[in-house]
Amino acid sequence: MARAGLTTERLVEAAADLADEVGFENVTLSALARRFGVKDASLYAHIRNLRDLRTRVAFLAGGEMIDRIAAAVAGRAGKDALAAFAGAYREYALQRPGRYAATQIRIDQDLVADSPALRRTAEITYGILRAYGLDEPDLTDAVRLLRSTFHGYCALEASGGFGAPRDVQASWDRAVAALHVALEHWPRNDHEEPSDE
């Protein structure tokens, strides 16, 4: 491809595709430059360095993922919304493994605050959890529970880590149902000072 055709958007999209093909950790500036038939130095007019590229891929992937989740949860509430959220999350993680890995990197909080996609992710996630009557700090704890459960399950499934004959989808459905029960019966007031009464 001609150097004149390089743009930041094209480079980020190509890096995301490369991540799905070879793994996010294997995305390098050299590999991306080879894909476009240019020297590494040609990329620096559009991206600062590898960290900048990977952060941009993370934002791209995060936007794609929340678009899927938002479409899945639209018009749903409670257990139905949780199941739709979980299903869209898992589908994206399994279909777009390199992009999904990008969504798991730590990003500078100043950049997060400026990202409409990541703000939207927080709004949708917290919106679902507020329907269970949760407020801070329980909201943050619940987000961490969901994220670690979904991520752990998807990582094990993607690596073939579930060897038992039990259907993986059936186990997923049960896990989501268990999360719903946990959210409905969330332990209350553990963070409050004891009453003098």
From TrEMBL:
<keyword id="KW-0804">Transcription</keyword>
<dbReference type="Pfam" id="PF13305">
    <property type="entry name" value="TetR_C_33"/>
</dbReference>
<keyword id="KW-0238">DNA-binding</keyword>
<feature type="DNA-binding region" description="H-T-H motif">
    <location>
        <begin position="28"/>
        <end position="47"/>
    </location>
</feature>
<dbReference type="InterPro" id="IPR009057">
    <property type="entry name" value="Homeodomain-like_sf"/>
</dbReference>
<dbReference type="InterPro" id="IPR001647">
    <property type="entry name" value="HTH_TetR"/>
</dbReference>
<keyword id="KW-0805">Transcription regulation</keyword>
<dbReference type="InterPro" id="IPR025996">
    <property type="entry name" value="MT1864/Rv1816-like_C"/>
</dbReference>
<dbReference type="Pfam" id="PF00440">
    <property type="entry name" value="TetR_N"/>
</dbReference>
<feature type="domain" description="HTH tetR-type">
    <location>
        <begin position="5"/>
        <end position="65"/>
    </location>
</feature>
<protein>
    <submittedName>
        <fullName>TetR/AcrR family transcriptional regulator</fullName>
    </submittedName>
</protein>
<dbReference type="InterPro" id="IPR036271">
    <property type="entry name" value="Tet_transcr_reg_TetR-rel_C_sf"/>
</dbReference>
